[in-house]
Specification:
alpha/beta, 9-stranded mixed β-sheet, about 625 residues, binds magnesium ion, 2,3-Dihydroxybiphenyl 1,2-Dioxygenase, domain 1
């Protein structure tokens, strides 16, 4: 598979872009003339620079408003095209893109446009060049790839072909199956972009909100299936206009772009196995059955503080590592690991971020396969030296540089708890009552807002998960955007919270801990009231919620006053959706802003987003008690 990306998709100086694109594994670049006019080297130098990076120029986009023009514009356009053909020879590319005319003076008419392209085809052919025609969603006369194809067909020239762009087709909701009847060799290049579903002007949407396939809401996979069915096997080229990407790191955006294409084609190949585009073989997205453990890096003092909090939460020290200062706390299916090692990655993470949940393990169907797929999608491998008889668990770097481990039940890894750990007083289990926590309901990671799409794609491309629409969480000091990655059965739920400013609680967390990471961990219980009673018997102090909240929910949901009274006593929050009810309870923050949540789901599918503002206000009161100046 040959991949390419438009240089306007990423930020940086031209040379910086080239090296980021080459390092991400692309084969080619699309050049917009403006991008290249701003650069002070000759076209021949640019061509050489591109080739020196091991790239080719897949497409040159030098001007618009070509076809169907009256004189004298028509003649001038042909002169212009000739000059751009000269430039293409110097750049070393053979394909020019012309998008459908948007000029108010253009005349329209399929045959007139076809005749112009036939004449242009003659001129291009004499120089060994090709021209592709693309329907812009807002073209004046041509705004549909089916009409563009009709013009190309009637132009009837080997040097004139069609250019498809997923955005233009999908934004106008044109049936993608209309692509299947176009001969693959008449499609000169395919441009790919996704976008979030927002009702707005098509041009504005396209120029500012496009994103990588898989990051938005458009049916890019169905579009690409239809393209692949034509026998097309040329470049897959990203043409992404996104203000955020243009302000982001060229390395990260290029990596996301390449990952999006590998992921897209892997999905297409699984549905349409006979396609001609060669697609790298890899394992299917990993099936996740849960979070096997979460690991905290701590020092001595905050380690003791965390362990006493875990004990109050009903966890019991169940096992310790055979050779390291590492203890496993357990309750129900939940394993929390407290790592006090003074060397290795955990210790480095502690020194940089303070006490933090720096790692978690996913229980997957095939750990080696999941790891290999992650690497094929460009994830960064992680390993560190282990003792001779200790297991090397496959792992990658995740959000904020943290670690994601893969465990399974089909390999040697299934024995990790027996092999690397020894039980602590197993006979004590009876004497150590838990509080009814059964499993990890969700893990919440906080990132910078501009990294959210990166991490959504990271998870959804590797794991058999879906993403929910983005919701805004109103923090008293700003907005935090939240989006969830989850398996269909809810065995894995990760909430990603993107902080736009440091005054929000999430933003504060990033600043205080020097980077993104796991900000809270939610445990499930089957009976939150029994859990709350057991917790308070152990001395647990829940986060105090404003009494006004309870007045409001009683009226809002028409709840039984006795139930509301019980919730108020235990600081339990409430929400409801079409599926059922949700009860939540929070711990105060620990360390630099980490906290625990306890939830009971009675058929409810969400995460209590409407309650977040009350929780955030309560956490802020807790961080800054009344009377202490701001
Ligand atoms: Mg395009
Ligand atoms: Mg939560």
């Amino acid at each position: 598979m040959k991949t390419s990306i438009a240089t306007v998709s990423i930020s940086g100086e031209f040379e910086e872009k080239l090296s980021a694109i080459a390092r991400a594994g692309f084969d080619g670049i699309e050049i917009f003339e403006n991008d290249f006019l701003a650069f002070d080297r000759s076209p021949a130098d640019v061509g050489k620079m591109v080739r020196d990076h091991g790239l080719t120029v897949s497409l040159f986009q030098p001007f618009r408003d070509f076809e169907g023009m009256p004189e004298p514009f028509r003649s001038r356009n042909f002169d212009r095209a000739e000059r751009k053909f000269d430039l293409m020879a110097e750049l070393g590319t053979d394909l020019m893109l012309i998008c459908s005319n948007t000029s108010p003076v253009s005349l329209g008419g399929i045959d007139r446009a076809a005749a112009d392209f036939h004449a242009l085809g003659e001129r291009a052919a004499s120089r060994g060049l090709r021209v592709g025609y693309e329907a812009l969603a807002w073209g004046r006369h041509i705004s549909d790839h089916r009409d563009a194809w009709e013009i190309v067909r009637r132009a009837d020239h080997a040097s004139i072909g069609l250019i498809l762009d997923s955005f233009h087709t999908l934004a106008r909701k044109i049936d993608v199956n209309s692509i299947r009847s176009i001969p693959g060799d008449r499609i000169f290049i395919v441009q790919l972009a996704d976008a979030p579903l927002i009702e707005m002007d098509l041009l504005y949407w396209s120029r500012h909100f496009r994103n990588m396939p898989g990051e938005g809401d458009l049916a890019v996979t169905a579009f690409m299936q239809a393209v692949a069915a034509t026998g097309y096997d040329g470049f897959l080229s990203l043409e992404i206009f996104n203000d955020q990407f243009r302000g982001g790191s060229p390395e990260a955006i290029s990596r996301d772009g390449r990952r999006s294409l590998v992921y897209l084609m892997d999905q297409v190949k699984r549905i349409e196995p006979d396609i001609r585009i060669p697609v790298p073989a890899m394992h299917a997205r990993a099936e996740v059955s849960g979070i096997a453990f979460v690991e905290f890096a701590v020092g001595d003092d905050d380690g003791r503080e965390l362990e006493s909090l875990l004990t109050i939460l009903g966890f019991r020290a169940a096992a310790k590592h055979r050779s390291k200062a590492v203890t496993v706390f357990r309750q129900g299916e939940i394993n929390l690991i407290v790592n006090r090692e003074e060397k290795g990655f955990a210790s480095a993470s502690y020194l940089v971020h303070g006490a933090n949940a720096y790692a978690f393990a996913l229980m997957v169907d095939d750990a080696a396969g999941a790891h290999a797929r992650a690497l094929a999608l460009g994830a960064e491998d992680f390993s560190q030296p282990v003792a001779l008889d200790e297991m090397q668990v496959p792992a990658i770097r995740g959000v904020g540089g943290g670690i994601v481990y893969f465990l399974d039940e089909i390999s040697e890894l299934a024995r990790i708890w027996d092999k690397d750990f020894e039980p602590i007083n197993p006979d004590d289990e009876e004497g150590c009552p838990n509080v009814g926590l059964t499993r990890i309901d969700h893990l919440a990671q906080t990132t910078r807002y501009d990294e959210m799409l990166t991490w959504l794609l990271f998870y959804t491309s590797q794991l058999a998960t879906r993403k929910t629409p983005m919701v805004d969480i109103i923090d008293p000091s700003g907005v935090v955007r939240s989006q969830v990655v989850e398996t269909a059965d809810g065995r894995l739920r990760i909430t990603l919270n993107g902080a736009e400013n440091r005054n929000t609680l999430a933003g504060h967390f990033i600043t205080e801990t020097f980077g993104s990471g796991i900000q809270h961990l939610a445990f499930e219980t089957d009976d939150i009231f029994a859990t709350a009673t057991a917790l308070s018997a152990k001395g647990f102090k829940a986060l105090v919620i404003s009494p006004n909240y309870y007045e409001d929910i009683e009226a809002r949901f028409g709840l039984d006053p006795a139930l509301v009274e019980r919730m108020k006593e235990a600081q339990i929050l409430y929400d409801r959706d079409d599926g059922g009810e949700y009860f939540q309870l929070y711990s105060p923050t620990y360390g630099e802003g980490f906290f625990f949540e306890i939830v009971e789901r009675r058929g409810y599918a969400g995460y209590g987003a409407p309650n977040a503002i009350f929780r955030i206000a309560a956490l802020k009161r807790h961080l800054r008690p009344t009377g202490v100046p701001k």
